[in-house]
Amino acid sequence: MNLVLLCGGIGGSKLALGLYQQFPHANLSIIVNTADDVDILGLHVSPDLDTLIYTLAGLANRRQGWGIQGDTFQALDMLKMYGHEAWFRLGDRDIATHLARTHWLRQGLTLSETADRQRRFLNVSAQILPMTNDPVRSSIETHDGWIPFQDYFVRLGYTVEPTGVRLDGIDSARAPTEVFESIARADRIIVAPSNPVVSIGPILAVPGLRDALVESSAPIIAVSPIVGSQAVTGPAAQLMKAVGMPASACGVGIAYQDFLDLLVVDASDSQAQTDAALMGIEARATNTIMSDARSKRRLARFVVEASLS
Ligand code: FO1
Question: What are the residue ranges of CATH 3.40.50.10680 in the chain?
């Protein structure tokens, strides 16, 4: 079975892990957002790629979702002594990843090739596919002007009101061939419960990618990251409002309606299925909160099996 997952960072990686563990014999290809990538002191940091690969490799800091379990911050402490801002908390072992990636990129490898090397060295068997090898960066509009995504998310802890989202570089970005090939051979395509604006949005905005989904004959199932009017984690609801989308599970379905076959909503969200039906979106409810290994695998099984019936 060929499974394709469209994935952002923390929420997406949880479902990725569920699929990876529940379907160990499937060919799992994961298309990953790279619009959160950031340059820190010349190092290429790819938060969503790293969150995903660390999660599948069993290295992730499970409590915070990002970074490496048990990592230390001595390099960052030293950088502070040199007057460097330290709000983006790079751990020592994590810095090794960024050093290796940046070195490989300077040797001429593409981001896809670095991700493939990284996952092989960390014994991850899933195919990890950055959405593009070209630089695409999200910026958030606030009442004080535009700021880079990581400033909004990490430095300001998404406490400022977003009023718009921009994806610099998206028009000239190209998806690597393997991304289109994975979609073409997919038996199921799953859209993770990741932020529909700044995680899944950039993937869908890479020229040609959304069309490939619309044309795919594989069932496409999305899991809503919104329960009621709130995101399970992070600023998805605020960002959806900022770009004029209803901040609800149904709003997620509307955002994907042109290619979506099934929307999976949380069982506690009584309004979601009714609203989705009114919009002509087929929805099914289950527990979508992935708090432990069992619930991740259970949701993974649900989304794959739901598309059979
Ligand atoms: N998220 C935080 O909330 N605070 C951090 O200091 C932080 C550091 C960090 C370092 C490396 C990395 O790969 C990710 C990191 N993240 C941090 C997470 C990350 O920036 C966001 O979760 C994603 O960009 C949103 O998907």
Answer: 2-136+170-306
In our burial notation (b when 16+ CB lie closer than 10 A, e otherwise), range 153-177 reads bbeeebebebeebebeebeebebbe
Q: Looking at the domain that runs over 2-136+170-306, which CATH code has it been given?
A: 3.40.50.10680
Alpha-carbon distance 179 to 298, whole Å?
Answer: 27
Distances (CA, A) of 263 to 151, 158, 231, 250: 32, 27, 16, 8
51-91 pLDDT per residue, tens? 999 999 999 998 999 999 999 999 999 999 999 999 999 99
Give me ligand 1 centre to Cα 76, in Å.
14
Beta carbon of 45 within 6 Å of any ligand 1 atom: yes
Ligand 1 closest atom vs CA 91? 10
Distance, C-alpha 307 to centroid of its chain: 21
Q: Which pLDDT score, from 0 to 100, does residue 270 have?
A: 86
Segments of the chain with pLDDT less than 70: 307-309
Note the pLDDT of residue 308: 53
